[in-house]
Design goal:
Length: 137
């Protein structure tokens, strides 16, 4: 079944409160697993063992620095080197329904301010520790 990407959003999580980032236009998530090759000259096929896993996410928003729109929390997190708790997915009322949650550092923020265009912001997150997969029951 296809899922409408507009319904999968980035939320800042504080305790049990999920706050959507206003102005979001796109987001993405990448889960990676590094594989370490252990094959030798006698192996016809490559062999691997498990290495470190990692995750990252990004979101694009229409720039809005008002405190109520939550983008400022990402700016503060980058400047302070602090972590943020995020959930990327869909909600069922006030509860996370389908997506991935985790703690991340803000790796970068890029503001773009072109002539005759909406000012925008791209935010890159790097996960710290294992993410939590949330799925419908």
């Amino acid at each position: 079944m296809a899922i409408n990407g507009s319904n999968r959003k980035v939320y800042l999580v504080s305790n049990t409160t999920y706050t959507a980032i206003v102005g979001e236009t796109a987001n993405s998530m990448d889960l990676s697993h590094n594989l370490i090759e252990v094959s030798d000259k006698t192996d016809e096929w490559a062999e691997y063992i498990s290495g470190a896993k990692s995750w990252s996410a990004s979101l694009d928003v229409n720039l809005d620095n008002t405190a109520t729109e939550r983008q400022v929390e990402f700016l503060r997190g980058l400047v302070n080197g602090s972590q943020v708790n995020v959930f990327i997915g869909t909600m069922n009322g006030a509860e996370a329904a389908d997506g991935i949650a985790g703690t991340a550092y803000i790796a970068s923020i890029k503001d773009t301010n072109n002539r005759a265009a909406v000012a925008s912001r791209s935010i890159s997150l790097t996960g710290s520790g294992a993410p939590v997969i949330v799925y419908p029951v």
